Amino acid sequence: MVADKYTPQEIESKWYEYWIENKLFHSEPDAREPYTIVIPPPNVTGMLHMGHMLNNTLQDVLMRRARQQGKNACWVPGTDHASIATEAKVVAKLKAEGIDKASLSREEFLAHAWEWKEKHGGIILQQLRKLGASCDWDRTCFTMDEPRTQSVIKVFCDLYEKGKIYRGVRMVNWDPSAKTALSDEEVIYKESQGKLYYLRYQVEGSDRYLVVATTRPETILGDTAVCLNPNDERYADIPEGARVIVPLVGRSVPIIRDEYVDIEFGTGALKVTPAHDVNDYMLGEKYNLETIDIFNDDGTINDKVGMYVGVDRFDCRKQIEKDLQEAGLMEKVEQYTNNVGYSERTGVAIEPKLSMQWFMSMAEIAEPATKAVLEDAIKFIPAKYKNTYRHWMENIKDWCISRQLWWGQRIPAYYLPKGGYVIAETAEQALEKAREKAQDPTLQLSDLRQDEDVLDTWFSSWLWPISVFDGIRNPENEDIKYYYPTSDLITVQILSSSG
Amino acid sequence: MIMAGYEYRGEKPFGNVYFTGIVRDKLGRKMSKQLGNSPDPLDLIAKYGADGMRVAMMLSSSAGNDVMFDEALCEQGRNFGNKIWNAYRLISMWQVDESLAQSENNRLSVEWFKQTLSKAIAEINDLFSSYRISEAFMRIYKLFWDDFSGWYLEMVKPAYQQPTDKATMESTKYYFDQLMRLIHPFMPFVTEEIWQDLAPRAEGESIMYAPMPEAEQVDEKLLARFELATEVITGIRNVRKQKNIAQKQELELNVIADENYPAEYAPVIAKMCNLSQINLIEEKDPTADAFIVKTTQYFVPMGEMIDKDAELKKLSDELTYLEGFLSSVMKKLSNERFVNSAPEKVVANEKAKKADAEAKIAAIKERMEALK
Predict the structure, then answer these.
(1) How crowded is the C-beta side of B121, counted as CA atoms within 13 Å?
(2) Of the CATH numbers 3.30.420.40, 3.40.50.920, 3.40.50.620, 3.40.50.300, which one belongs to the domain with range A156-185+352-455?
């Protein structure tokens, strides 16, 4: 006989314990038809919110129904290490304790981070138990545990071998607060009120000035050319090979002519700063211009030019405006609204910055994935999200996968003392390859320097449905053969970067 | 994930992707700490139970669209748990007399619920197969709350301090078991508690592995006939309500039976409405309260139970209204332009209204005459 009154609190913990004790959520491959869901891994340091409630209730409903339909139901739980978010939290916690991250070695910092993860991480999985989630807890995974880390490294090496991962200097979205590069998906564009400054560049050897409009006068420190449209008759009199003087800086730079410049915008004359603007960077590549990176990683001016050294980029803008006015090099200033990118995580304005990063080529790898959805091999419910997906996949650019952080899988690139690098799954293998590459059998591990950066968390989560069954390291194991492909993925409506 | 699937397994990582909406508050605002409209789910679970919380999610969600959450839904969830609990307590208290033969009423009720359950299961399966999970829950909710609790249990409930028969008790428990299995994915805890109590279970046994009930061939004709009976029951309940006659007081029912009279359900109608008898009559009974279900006319004799003057007053008010209504319909129908240019269906509809009003007026006049 049940109790007189319905008291959920009394029965719920009792039955959850009973289910766990009797291992009723546990699944092993057998003769039954499998029904598999892998949890879209929540952030390890996160807390349960209402979105999780909805998402996980739906997953549990499907799991329990499958079990009652006689299927071998397996729901794999886990969390992801959320590289940038977690590192930011640990840095903040250390700061509160009076410890500066810069004063710690990588190993010391990681020890703090792991300690923090053990303490706060996985609270979210404990919370899911309260909801009644029938996850196979014996299979709990973490994107940074050993099997998952080894899978990530193995895939990195494999894609590198296949030529799908490359290293290069590219314009990236730089977050001067977190001091790391971000992927395009981590940048949010907002309309911002700013100014358009009209600057005077004197044509060398004459008293003629070119007036150039810019929203970022502080970047004149990095100007290495001025560009005109060859069809712009206003500038037809300027001789071929003429140069201009960058205001305040006094640097002589070439005038280049390219139809890329919009005759209608501003004065039709464009300053070219290859180090700090994506389009300028492309012009720089085309005309072989010098690139002068004027910023430190925290967004202050560096000592390359010897002016405004150590001044923050926004203070520098104000100061330069004043100095240009005083030098009579400012034609005028107008109010101007433009789109500025901000870091999703730290909220600061993104600085386009040239840096050496690792990239993954996407076009080829995206092709079968796009086709699968458009041809309904993978069904989207509701189907309207197919369009969003297609748009995202068709516009996908090469993915910047390196992050200037410590919390994550360290990139398995090892630099040789005399230049060049090797990619290997382990340090031992790296040494072997390095000796071969350098033709120097005396090379020691201590001679090699491993890349300081870690991989974007996405590089872990995109492998999740395979890596939770250890299908990357052991592609023929019983689990992966039995549970893969999984049945359903339950996710929030916005297509995340783990697409 | 899809890209990695094809790159490393040469195969998709999952068959279906179900997109949930974003959870918003009841005013449609996004939940955020600043707005303070983002409840802590653990507090809600502590207050309403996980089962209540899960029901709230089902009541507020639909695939891909934003989800409006209101704490009242958690309460509704807990109330559903309470409803299940109390229904189970009710049947647990019934006494069984093994020597008692199953009454026709009980036999009919058991047979009807079997069909109702089967039909619901088929619909639920259908909804699940198209991932309409909230709708599947709503169907189960209705099955338990309306069909099982509201109808079936009322139909088979033994009279006060009277026992029930063994067959009915067994069927009722069987249905309860089936319903718990259906509800389990949504409310795992309360269903486990009750399922464990329904019969002795071995250690380690759980409703989690109790096979999901399967749909059988549904006798649609039987369900349609029962539907008529429920309308008759509703008709008599309306009479009681309008005339303020307590359920305790027995009534009689007179029927001019035709093919739409569900005669086989007479025992159910009699029990549900506390009727002393159901008489088949040939002629209209103008003194009785009358109603029609489909084509069948039903009469509830009032005898001394009503206030004659008040009844006359009510009838005359109704008559005035109906006559006004009739004249407006007549006006339309006498308008040649309307009759000639309106779609056939519309005209036919107006004509039906006219016939209906005329019949009602005649009945009221008859009734008033009889009362005088």
Answers:
(1) 20
(2) 3.40.50.620
